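Workshop exercise sheet. Pairs work together: one partner reads the sequence aloud, the other fills in the structure field after running the prediction. Swap roles for the next sheet.
Pair: D.N. / O.F.
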Amino acid sequence: MSRRHQPVSLTISMVSIFAALNVIGDSVPLTPIVGLEQSKLTLGWTFAPLSGLMLGPFSGGLSCFLASLVELFIGFPVQPPFGPLGLARSPLAAFQTGLITTRRWPASGGLLLLLVVCWLATPQGREALPVSAFYAFGLGLILLSRKWVPDALESKSRRRIGFAVGIAAYCGNISRHLFGNLLFVLLASFPAAVFLTAIPLTLLEQAFFALISGVLGSSLIPLGIRRATYLG
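Structure field:
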């Protein structure tokens, strides 16, 4: 069946299933967010990139956006100071991951570069310059692995697939992380010290999320699940 002519019912089903998975993931807290009491990063940071990987950038992003709306409706706590803009964070991770894994690296790199420019345009972004190393690393990965990642996903080596998924997931999540930091600065005027203090935790978090995504992806893709679910 051509991916360009998937029946509407299949699209709705796949988007809904992955939306439910993201809601479940977001209900599992992992680590606290520096500067926000009673707020935690969740397992959803692993499921959002996988949504973009398995469904494609647009359908994956839509599934995460739907999950955010469902969470809002059923009473998940809204992390201040994000407000409505917070609904775009997990879709951004899925969208970015989907771009990288479908050879749309110019759009992927351009999106992250735009976010970096916006970050450095703020006083806090310039004061917390070491934090930008995470974002520069993401840009470097996009450029250096722009051909390797999609090719590796088509290979039969689980190790190659796992590395490729981990790279793509890191780039997706670090884009989400950067967008969140921009919201902290623009909406709540967080000082640079908060972002600098969070560097060790950010390093551990991003490595953990990339690792878990890689492990899950290396198990799912060889089973043909991506070929069956990809929508675009």
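Discussion prompt: The two ends are 14 Å apart (CA to CA). What would you look at next?
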